[in-house]
Amino acid sequence: MTPGEPRASGSGRLISVLAWTLLLLALGLWGRELSDGHFPGAAFPGTALGDASAAAGEEGGGELPPPAPPLAGDAAPLAVEIDAIGVRADVVERGLDAGGGVEPPPFERPELVGWWADGPSPGAEGAAVLVGHVDTEREPAVFYALSAVEAGEPVRVTREDGSTAEFTVSGVEVVERAGFDAERVYGQRRDGAAELRLITCGGTFDEERGSYSANVVVSAYLTGRG
């Protein structure tokens, strides 16, 4: 999506089967391209979670708040806040790169978060996707501590229409790339709901291949509007 291109409004915007298939395939490979380097000596916090282990809590169940209906309109996200890990970051639109992968934020701007702009916007019906680097060759990046987020913690996304989509984390997973099920991880899990996925690299870093073995995936669902 180029700047100034008209955006359809409402939760009824359709994503073509081809575009959705490309996204699922791209996200399965995305972590390979996300971090060109690795913060030397960093003990990545996500490794303690294990392979595809989910944090306790179901959307709208247990002690978690009930889901809220999707927000009207389809406003692009401007910023994301995760108080639990001290994240307050600007969000930039991203598409697919020449190789069919989701284009992460510029590597020289590790403080930014990228939004897959051909998918739902945060707060709209569907599963919106926000991605960020875990580290650079010299320092931690915006989502370095993403795996430390816990179920029940809030995530706020400021939208271009002036509204704030307020989400509650329902679970955290470290998903190994071996046997990766992109549809299960990134697809919408509840019809009619507004969901959010926050994604970065995780697992262990392979120095020889220059990539991580897994992705950290935080799942959240809309619980309010600010």
Can you characterise this structure?
The two termini are 27 Å apart. With 226 residues, this protein is mostly beta strands. It has helices spanning 17-34, 182-186, and strands at residues 77-82, 87-94, 113-116, 126-131, 154-159, 164-176, 194-206, 211-225.
Order of helices and strands: HEEEEEEHEE
Q: Please, how many helices?
A: 2
Mean pLDDT across all amino acids:
76
Q: Proportion of β residues?
A: 25-35%
Q: What is the structural class?
A: mainly beta
Rough shape? globular
Task: Please outline what is shown here.
The protein is mainly beta and 226 residues long.
Write the layout of secondary structure elements.
Elements: H1 17-34, E1 77-82, E2 87-94, E3 113-116, E4 126-131, E5 154-159, E6 164-176, H2 182-186, E7 194-206, E8 211-225
Name its key features.
226 residues, mainly beta, 31% strand, disordered N terminus
